[in-house]
Amino acid sequence: MRSSRPLVQYASQAALGWELMETQDRLIWRDGAFIPWPDATVHVLAQSLQRGTLAFDFMSVHATPKGPAIMRLPEHTARLLETCRIMGIPIACGKDDLNRACVETVRRNPGATALKISALIPSIEVELVPQDARVSVFIAAYDSQADIIARNPGQAYTPKTLKLRVERQVRNRRKDIVPPQAKVAANYSGPAFAKWRARREGFDEILLLNESGTVAESTTSNLFAVIDGALATPGDENVLLGITRASIMELGDASGIPCAKRSLRVADLLAADEVFLTSTSKAVFPVRQIDETRIGEGTPGPITRRLADRFERIATGRDPGFAHWLTLCTNP
Ligand SMILES: Cc1ncc(COP(=O)(O)O)c(C=O)c1O
């Protein structure tokens, strides 16, 4: 029987009983100062909008017994800086500035459950090479449900388990075009259109393959298979280095579940006992079907459930063994 809620469902601000804040009252950090939500705009001709050169990272914020906390903040800001380094985006902020700004943004936006940093080139340019390459950094803390989905109900797409289609037209991000380790807007356009096609065909999500035909990742998540009681995930070379992926590998280790990074074929997944995706927004997300094949029993398997439960306890501050993954944002 299928469960009635996702395995890990981060609570929205209303469910947490947090003070509700009107979206227009939210404050967005821009280059060192807070500005009102409606003012956080860029020109339609901005270089990053026209050329896809926006670097970004996305974090989750949780209600813990000690107050709101960001999950794995330093790892996320380090990845944003790594994206900028790979792409050559000349960001001026360092990691300490970014970490401080993220904490302050959560403090100034009560009830936020999501945190997004964007580093972009706002200048209007005629050439590919920007004459004014100053990078603006925006940090927004909000609640996806109250601030975005409720204002546009068409966005409320909430399957409990996933039906994946193996994508055979669009290959995963190729390192000789834009390396998959860069979380940059340009890297998402091919997968976004491919996922859109899959949705029209009745699938929830796509599975991207490498040029060699082996499994890479999904559009915005990494993939794990459970094979003979052990976890397997594709190697680092062809995927975004997901922070949840790293967390799940560490949790597997701590829970006595062996985990290997290795090449996986689609056939390995179809024969696996369990398959799940990992991402900041969905944590551990079970896959029930790939193409026309049911995975395992078609319901979340025992290892998936165990890891999902532990991850949720950690994120919500109820597992002292992993308290160091959380950065508290209480007022000083
Ligand atoms: C391409 C891609 N892979 C994997 C992930 C999962 O990464 P994380 O667990 O850090 O959210 C994301 C997250 O957005 C992504 O965009």
Give a short synopsis of this structure.
With 332 residues, this protein is of the alpha+beta class. The protein has helices spanning 13-16, 47-51, 73-87, 95-108, 144-148, 189-200, 243-254, 266-270, 302-315; strands spanning 27-30, 33-36, 55-64, 67-71, 114-120, 136-142, 162-166, 205-209, 215-218, 222-227, 230-233, 259-261, 274-279, 283-290, 293-294, 326-328.
Describe this entry's structure for a reader.
It is a single chain. The chain has 332 residues and is an alpha+beta fold. It folds into 2 domains: 13-153, Aminotransferase class 4, branched-chain amino acid transferase, N-terminal domain (D-amino Acid Aminotransferase, Chain A, domain 1); 159-315, D-amino Acid Aminotransferase, Chain A, domain 2 (Alpha-Beta Barrel). The protein has 9 helices and 16 strands. The protein has helices at 13-16, 47-51, 73-87, 95-108, 144-148, 189-200, 243-254, 266-270, 302-315, and strands at 27-30, 33-36, 55-64, 67-71, 114-120, 136-142, 162-166, 205-209, 215-218, 222-227, 230-233, 259-261, 274-279, 283-290, 293-294, 326-328. Strands 7, 8, 9, 10, 11, 12, 13, 14 and 15 form a 9-stranded mixed β-sheet that branches. A hairpin with a 2-residue loop joins strand 10 and strand 11 (230-233). Helix 3 (73-87) crosses helix 4. It is globular, with a radius of gyration of 20 Å. 43% of the residues are buried. The mean pLDDT is 93. Pyridoxal-5'-phosphate binds next to helix 7 and strand 13.
